[in-house]
Amino acid sequence: MDALEPFRCAGPSQEPEPLEYLRGAGDRAYDIQLEVLLQSESMADPAVIATSNFRYLYWNVCQQLAHHTVTGCNVRPGDLMASGTISGPEPHQRGSMLELTWRGSEPLELADGSTRKFLADGDTVIMSGWGERDGIRVGFGEVRGKLLPARPMEF
Residue 90 and residue 56: Cα distance in Å, rounded? Predict the structure, then answer.
């Protein structure tokens, strides 16, 4: 968390105001750039399909942790917490294929000439994030996954 301190910023306003145990003073969001690329099997290189920013996360990490543990759920050092979809205010900042294609009514056009309403078998999705300010850059690497065809169930 110390490495993220230079990227601390205000998050979105929350209306209605959260319950008391989820309220907190000060900036609780982080200015972290997020990028999603898609590569079909016929594309030589992946193409950016969405960009967003972690600062658009409606429930900040402190609120998520408090909500997760308020009913007694155990959290231990090293546990990973997932934020969920992070969508920004602009169409290119939508955080999922369902949102990016507006439920399939606005297909994405890919560099190889194909379109996507939803992911297809063989597509590779690559996500990365980084904070950058005043000559300081903190990167989080990338995560990538390839959508494989469904296998028939064996009984």
Answer: 11
Q: Which tokens sit at 71?
A: 């009913």
pLDDT for res 15:
94
- pTM of the shown model: 0.88
CATH superfamily label, 2-146: Fumarylacetoacetase-like, C-terminal domain (3.90.850.10)
Domain definitions of the chain by residue range:
2-146
- C-alpha angle with apex 34: 115 to 40, nearest 5 degrees? 25
Torsion of CA 69, 73, 79, 85, to 10 degrees: -60
Q: How far apart are alpha carbons 95 and 84 in whole angstroms?
A: 9
Query: Which DSSP string corresponds to 109-151?
Result: EPTTS-EESS--TT-EEEEEEEEEETTEEEEEEEEEEE-PPPP
pLDDT digits (tens, 9 = 90+) for 75-103: 999 998 888 899 999 999 999 999 999 99
Token pair recorded at residue 146? 């390839």
Q: How many CB atoms lie within 10 A of CB 22?
A: 16
